[in-house]
Amino acid sequence: MATDLLESAFGTKNILGLWRSKKIPQRGKITDDATYEPHGIGCRVYISQICIDFDYSTDGRIDGFDAWRLYLYACEVPKKHQKYTNKTTTEQEFSEYVAKGKQRKYMTQPLTYIFKALDKKPNINTSAANFSLTTIINGKNRDSYSIK
Q: Is 146 a domain residue?
């Protein structure tokens, strides 16, 4: 969703080149309720006061995440994900999910994780990774490995 907005506004999902070449400002409006803010190797897109922060990998992927990003998102919508506003809880459940082999480190982006396998019916009350599926990936349960 966030990158679709970028693509519709700028013709590309990865706006870092546009920003670095000064073709677009560092902060700007995409729609009436959406703004963008490129940073380092990623971008923040704010939609209706919710921040979607992601990094672009070296091959352009944007579907990675880590415990920190899950925690930040939970803090953006605490009524929806109160359990994960506790950083320790988020880190612990995220680590458990990694240990179970449900996700793996993406080698070109050492601090970011992507899904290797996906449960058919994610339950946000049992793991941080399942939480990310229902909130970060368009708010829907999906059998997909990427954010749209």
A: no
In terms of residue numbers, what domain contains 21?
2-55
Q: What pTM was computed for the model? A: 0.60
Amino acid at 27: R
Interatomic CA distance for residues 94 and 85, integer angstroms: 13
- Which single residue is written with the structure tokens 């073709």? 23
Sheet holding 28-31, edge to edge: 28-31, 34-39, 42-47, 50-55
Residue 43 shares a structural domain with residue 87:
no
Structurally, the chain folds into a number of domains equal to 2
* 127 is a domain residue: yes
Q: Report yes or no: 101 and 58 within 8 Å, Cβ to Cβ.
A: no
Taking 70 as the pLDDT cut, the residues of the chain under it are 104-148
Residues in the chain: 148
